[in-house]
Amino acid sequence: PECHYDLGLLLMESGDYKAALEAMKTVTYLDSHHGEAHFHQGLCYQQLSLLDSAIAAYELALTFIPENADIWSNLALIMYQRSDLTNSILYYIKAAELAPKNPMVWQNLSYVQYAYGKYQDAVKSIKNALTLDETEENWGQLGLSQYASQQYQESCDALTVSLELNEQQPEIWNCMGNCLIHLEQHQSAQSAFYKAVEMTPDNPDYWFNLAELHILKQQSTEAITCLKRVISINERDIEALSLLGNLHVKNDPLEAIKYFEKYLEYAAANKDILSQLASLYADIDFKKTFYYRNQIKNLDPYDLDNNRYLVDLYLKLGAADKAFDLLLSNKSLQ
After folding, report:
1. pLDDT digits (tens, 9 = 90+) for 269-308
2. Rounded to an integer, what distance in angstroms lies between the CA atom of residue 3 and that of residue 84?
3. Strand extents, DSSP E, the chain
4. 266 Cβ partners below 8 Å, 6+ apart?
5. Which helix (H) or strand (E) holds 253?
6. How much of the chain is in helix, strand and coil states, percent to nearest 5?
7. Helix, strand, or coil (residue 59)
8. Distance from first CA to last CA of the chain, Å, rounded?
């Protein structure tokens, strides 16, 4: 069996996983208790994206070599790829128990805990990784996890270390900007966001965060510029469209209408957006106002303010009977 096992290893090194798999199958045919061969079958299956077979091979391997941390790590990765974060975390914890000096295991455990929303656990795990390997990635992951845990000063400190090791990390600059907003250091936050968008100008989230900061600083013109960059990248970004509409309401109603109606193309009817449109059209297009007021009524028949507007509109249209019917249907308006 060992000759076939050695051949399988060589084939894996060369990247020929199909042939390597056949060699490892020969090993387990000759010796069904060969745990390492079962493990390497799992590796081959995983490389070939045959994940069900990989899981079966790994589980069989564990019956013979249960203390192999790599098997638990690989199973954890497959669970993560399948969005089974609960089992992914359990398997990474087992791997960490077996290989506590392996920083990659702690790092991966932290990533999955972060994805699952267990931010405090993610902080603890990445701190374990940092005691073994102080890389920019680990400092960055610590900062991201601390930010998610609302530990803003600690997050800022960790992100600073990460950026000192490597400035070319737009995600870290973006998180730094968010941290600095919470610490009320708005000018420094702006500098951090600009670093992020300079490095990754096609990331709409970075432009959106910068826009929100400009809104916070009451810099409408700059906010509009950033939000336009967002929708140039993703025209369906309804949050950006909504903000653009609101920023134009006072000074450019027609532009506001354009963004609010674009919002409605991509999202379900929203009372606030419909109300804005009804108000904006009041002095421009009577029929449009009437149309949007009816849309609001369809969403919420008991919106008192909207129904009052509709009663007035019916009366202006000379439809007193419909105004009266609406009053009857909602006695609180009488």
Report:
1. 899 999 999 999 998 998 899 999 999 999 998 888 898 8
2. 38
3. none
4. 235, 236, 238, 241
5. helix 253-266
6. 80, 0, 20
7. helix
8. 92
